[in-house]
Design goal:
Largest sheet: 7 strands, mixed
CATH class of the largest domain: Alpha Beta
Number of strands: 16
Order of helices and strands: HEEEHHEHEEEHEHEHEHEEHHHEEHHEEH
Radius of gyration: 21 Å
Strand content: 5-15%
Bound molecules: ligand KE4
Distance between the termini: 35 Å
Number of domains: 2
Strand order of the largest sheet: 4-12-11-10-9-5-8
Helix content: 25-40%
Length: 438
């Protein structure tokens, strides 16, 4: 069946004239998978519909937030109702208190929370807070983990394993990047060595407790516990970046799933239910340094605005209903098991993995535990598979180094259709070229 993208192509050409790369966030431009990104006109439940009339079962879900599916009736009704009372006041509102309590009820590690408008704002603020609280400047992050685009976090590893970081983007000053140490994920020896060398100067570690930004990479057993122990022993803070894993891995986030008590946690995505929301929170003795309670400045015109709070509250309420996560996990496992049975049938070494309602599929034979092993994946094969699935009406992340997401709106029939399409798509993708074995 012809895959008409004439309107998306025209819109993409026009957008590139006035929006950098034609998009408002780089990964949407399909640079790593090629082709024209469909311009989406609307979403409903598990599906999105593009301007050319193509429809897709959506496993991107706006990069995670739409865990209830698109245009959920209860969320939509609540939003319409809230809009009639005004959209933003720049004043305290009861809704913010309600939302803060709802977030804290899900994560016992939280004693105070500050609402912001994106995951980047949340991680940027948490880093500033960790530096102020410890009176130290250095930060540890992990290679392949992404925490938004704040200067201190757009940093790649230095030339030597223990050399401080260098800018990962023009415009990031070297002296800012030089305070960030980028270490391999899932390697506690590297963290211990970093603290041996810089211990007194390290304000904290920021980590994706389950990585979604190099594809799905799970923490090795004991890894997160090790980060908790080493930071506590050295007076540094452990910051869990749960922008992606919060309410995605479990109602209590990755910290609840693995039983870790971080000092600070950052959030985004799901807690906005599709509207712009980020948040950071943690122990009271740390959070009380934040203005106006304390001297650490952080502010935001639209932070905690009523529409985002309404959407987030309704989303958390629905996720808190009995059976929600059993259903999400069951759908995700059905997809992963189905894809893996296809790979087995075709005698292919690739295996999908999942945790909670997020999943990933690496086109490589070995187990992926960090960025170096993630990079053994055959990205060309992934791109051909992605395009073959897109043409068949299934929208996955347009990069091998991203995760996939499930919603409560997906059905068993959607999953079974996806698995059937995957069987044809992987065959088509491989016929173009033999598999590049590492
Ligand atoms: P935002 O500023 O995009 O709301 O959040 C930044 C962020 C922070 N921490 C983690 C773990 C994240 O995954 C993100 C954002 N994730 C990307 C997808 N990998 C968002 C998609 C995009 O950049 O367009």
């Amino acid at each position: 069946m012809p895959f008409d993208q004439s309107k998306s192509s025209a819109l993409f050409a026009a957008s590139r004239e006035v929006i950098p790369g034609g998009v408002n966030s780089p990964v949407r431009a399909f640079r790593s998978v090629g082709g024209t990104p469909p311009f989406i006109a609307r979403g409903e439940g598990a599906r999105v519909y593009d301007v050319d009339g193509n429809s897709y079962i959506d496993y991107l879900l706006s990069w995670g937030p739409l865990i209830l599916g698109h245009a959920h009736p209860e969320v939509t009704e609540a939003l319409i109702d809230a809009t009639r009372r005004g959209t933003s006041f720049g004043t305290p509102t009861e809704l913010e208190l309600e939302m803060t309590r709802a977030v804290m009820n899900c994560l016992p590690s939280l004693e105070m929370v500050r609402m912001v408008n994106s995951g980047t704002e949340a991680t940027m603020s948490a880093i500033r807070l960790a530096r102020a609280y410890t009176r130290r400047n250095r930060i540890i992050k992990f290679i392949g983990c992404y925490h938004g685009h704040a200067d201190s976090l757009l940093v790649k590893a230095g030339s030597g394993a223990m050399d401080m970081g260098v800018p990962d983007s023009p415009g990031v000053p070297a002296n800012i990047a030089g305070n960030t140490l980028s270490l391999p994920y899932n390697n506690l020896d590297a963290v211990a060595e970093a603290f041996r060398l810089y211990g007194e100067e390290i304000a904290g570690i920021i980590v994706e407790p389950v990585v979604g930004n190099m594809g799905l990479v799970l923490p090795k057993p004991g890894y997160l516990e090790g980060l908790r122990r080493i930071t506590a022993e050295n007076g540094a803070l452990l910051i869990f970046d749960e922008v992606m894993t919060g309410w995605r891995v479990a109602l209590g986030g990755a910290q609840g799933y693995f039983g870790i008590d971080p000092d600070l946690t950052t959030f985004g995505k799901v807690i906005g239910g599709g509207l712009p929301v980020g948040a950071y929170g943690g122990k009271r003795k740390i959070m009380e340094l934040i203005a106006p309670a304390g001297p650490v400045y952080q502010a935001g015109t639209l932070s905690g605005n009523p529409l985002a709070m309404t959407c987030g509250l309704k989303t958390i309420e629905i996720l808190s209903r009995p059976g929600a996560y059993e259903r999400l996990n069951s759908l995700t496992e059905r997809l992963v098991n189905g894809v893996n049975s296809v790979m087995g049938e075709l005698d292919l070494p690739y295996r999908a993995r999942s945790i909670g309602a997020m999943f990933g599929l690496f086109f490589t034979e070995g187990e992926v535990v960090d960025y170096d092993t993630a990079c053994t994946a055959d990205t060309k094969l992934y791109s051909r598979y992605f395009q073959a699935m897109l043409r068949r009406g299934f929208y996955f992340a347009p990069s091998q180094f991203e995760a996939g997401f499930m919603s409560l709106a997906h059905t068993d029939a959607d999953i079974d259709a996806t698995v059937a399409a995957a069987r044809d798509a992987i065959r088509e993708a491989r016929e173009v070229a033999p598999i590049a074995r590492p």
